[in-house]
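Lay summary

Proteins are chains of building blocks that fold into shapes. Our project writes down both the chain and a compact code for its shape. Here are two examples, one after the other.
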Amino acid sequence: MSDNQVMERLLKFANGALLASVLAVLVTVVLAYPMASSLPMPVQIGAHIATLIFATTLKLSYVTRLVSLRSLGRPVH
């Protein structure tokens, strides 16, 4: 497998992970803040922790996307 094929696969993975992590952050923020009054305390705590974890995943996915784009010689915005 060539380097370009590896980077294309990495880019596809990073794009998917980026989408999934954005959706997960949105869900956990909604659970942690607007819906907090209707959720038990352990769920609220879990939502806050999950927000931090998914925000980190979002950042890592974005950096992975930038690395793969640069390796492929594509514009990095």
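And here is the second example, written the same way.
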Amino acid sequence: MIKAIFFDLDGTLIDSAPDLADALNFTLQKLGKEPFHLESIREWIGGGARLLLQRALSGKKESHKIEPILYEKAQKIFFDYYNKNLCNKTVTYPNAKELLEKLRPSYHLALITNKPERFVAPILEHLELNYFDLIIGGDTLKEKKPSALPLLYACSYFQISPQEAIMVGDSINDTLAAKRATITSILVDYGYESEEIESDYKISNLLEVLEVI
């Protein structure tokens, strides 16, 4: 019996790519670099803020080492801008709120994202998605997805076994973390990662979660 459902945030419940793209391009322009199109930036989201910045600074999805002084300067510009512009263009995906409303009375709900934790609460507040019993950001624990740690921590928090939980996400980080934690995974097909990803279930509409559980 499923007792808890864990959700990713960006690319699963919300489309935050336009605001992240604005913050990245503002940062790049401040550093004298060329901006990127939104569609390119969409494919870079999912690994957390550090990886997103590394990809933007290198101009490639593949991870590249960035000179530490440049990275630290870029991080400060990016975080300062994004912190003040979290929800200019960010929206929920269809049926996100409806699904959470349906699940809330019967299941423990956790949000497990690689986004820095301090950005999460203001976004949830603005979008009226305050349905979660537990929020784990990318910097909450010593490891983030694709590590199993955040998911196993959530299981411990709710005092359930991994077999009593489901992870809903849009990326390889979500499905790998679920697999390593022996938790069933549901992958939405409208998220930010375009390559084929293995998961236990694939859905096109968030309300299909109700059919799986």
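What can we say about the second shape? The chain has two domains: 4-15+90-212, 17-84.
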